[in-house]
Amino acid sequence: MTDRVIPLADHRYAAAIPAVPAVALPANGLLADTLGRPLRDLRISVTDRCNFRCSYCMPKEVFDKNYQFLPHSSLLSFEEITRVARLFVAHGVQKIRLTGGEPLLRKNLEVLVEMLSALATPAGEPLDITLTTNASVLAKKAQSLKDAGLQRVTVSLDALDDAIFRRMNDADFPVAEVLRGIEVAERVGLGPIKVNMVVKRGTNDHEIIAMARHFKGTPIILRFIEYMDVGATNGWRMDEVLPSAQVIARLDAEFGVEPIEPNYSGEVAERWRYVDGSGEIGVISSVTQAFCRDCNRARLSTEGKLFLCLFATHGHDLRALLRGGYADAQIEAAIGEIWRGRGDRYSELRGAMAADVGNGERRVEMHYIGG
Ligand code: SF4
């Protein structure tokens, strides 16, 4: 195992305050970036804290007991999150995913879910409000989240075997409790539930078949995610990536699988199903099959910085506008300008871009902007 601690280039303070256009063009829901991609999906990180230390996201060597998490005062309040979300919805956002860190560690998250659930698209359609969690407290929270208006959950689960699970997330937490969280979430109606497994060759790839067998025959959609070079701390190496094509080959050899059509343009996972009709699986292949061409996702950090790509090196400080006395129309126009100038497609260019993209800029950490 290589030494993989790299000094963390902290992005929390490296974000420009966006320019507010002199003429605030009202949003018309038709916004597109330089590659013609609309803005449809907003991922909101509600906390930078987590009770796990997944090696591909928050390696414990860096995020140790001395790590300074954000003070509560610097986090966006639920009112600020709802205000800025409304402005994104005016630009065409139809789906909001709550992330972290571990979002369920943010106190009273149900209150925010209720506030966001009251928003609607310009056409009057309800938003698709979903959440990604490690399910450590899902069993306790599922009913109140559902009652508040949450529609679906995605659960991160990298193994069924407790020892391998621990190797992936450095937390002494029983898999059984994660599975109980999934069960309760399903019972209260937070489905179809998706389960995300990050596959790291040589660490948990031998759990692929066991995971598939466990969820096969249920409505739960298991997705296999290629291990990614997110941030600058996880010591990513290409030889620890198991390409999705090999994951599919293993599943096909064991169960028989076939591809199915995407649900919508910009869907992250490539969809497959078991030929015997007993369920759906997916693969998310940011390393070997980049899907930047129709990436319609924006990410809001825990304290209000807008990032245009999971692998971005800088953000745009919307909190400064929210707390700076700017009117909604001005902030809306500033968001429009930022998105119109977007050209991000890191996964397509991966080979050409090193961890340090020069002039000291490093990629933002995933726990800070959500996966
Ligand atoms: S690498 Fe960036 S642009 Fe490409 S799909 Fe991922 S988030 Fe979107």
Overview of this structure, please?
- This protein has a single domain (14-369), classed as Aldolase class I (TIM Barrel).
- The radius of gyration is 20 Å and the shape is globular.
- It has a 13-stranded mixed beta sheet with strand order 1-13-12-11-2-3-4-5-6-7-10-9-8.
- It is built from 11 helices and 13 strands.
- The protein is an alpha/beta fold.
- It has helices at 78-90, 109-117, 138-148, 162-169, 175-188, 208-215, 244-254, 318-322, 328-340, 346-349, 366-369, and strands spanning 15-16, 41-45, 95-99, 128-133, 152-156, 194-199, 221-226, 257-259, 270-274, 280-284, 297-300, 305-307, 315-317.
- The longest helix is centred in the middle third of the chain and has 14 residues, at 175-188.
- 46% of the residues are buried.
- A hairpin with a 5-residue loop joins strand 9 and strand 10 (280-284).
- The two termini are 25 Å apart.
- Residues 1-9 have low confidence and may be disordered.
- The structure holds iron/sulfur cluster (SF4).
